[in-house]
Write a structure and sequence with these properties.
With about 190 residues, the chain is an alpha/beta fold. It has one domain: Glycosidases (TIM Barrel, Alpha-Beta Barrel). The N and C termini lie far apart (about 35 Å). The mean pLDDT is about 85.
Length: about 190
Amino acid sequence: MRNNQHSLRIFGIHNIKIGTSSSMDVLETPFPPSKDVFRNDISDQVLKPMLEFISKSESYFFLDVYPFFAWASDPININLDYALFKSKYIRITDLGIGLVYSNLFDQMIDAVYFAMNRLSYPNVPVFIAGWPNSGDSNQIGANINNVVTYNRNFIKKVTKKSAIGTPLRPGVVLQSFLFSLFMDGNG
């Protein structure tokens, strides 16, 4: 990332943000968010210097947030509606600090915020992405109905003024994009 930034500066290009995407497996544990940290094997060697670069260059921590994978890894303990932003009655409380979550997405984002806070980079903005397509028929739940439901509710979440932010950071706009909006040859 430093080399890319240096090359751009050589050519007089200063307005392009440099970053790289990370998956949620950068975190040590998924719950509770208030106790989360980055994985020990990459925290100091990879993530701390990356967050320092991002902070200094005023870029974003690009994060692939897939509530689907969290749900698929533990469908007994994680309700699919909670992952799809459909849970009207499911509330999960982080007893460590009393934050209440109504969807898995907010819970995951706050876990990253807490981990960044622990590395002393609380102000690095997060830029997020969405739900996997239905291309892998071996993954239960990765189907067109869930993709459409998640994307529709995700768009509502990030555009509805009253829902902006997370329980830890209410009102903070979550920069976001959707990608891989395609179907395989069978769909």
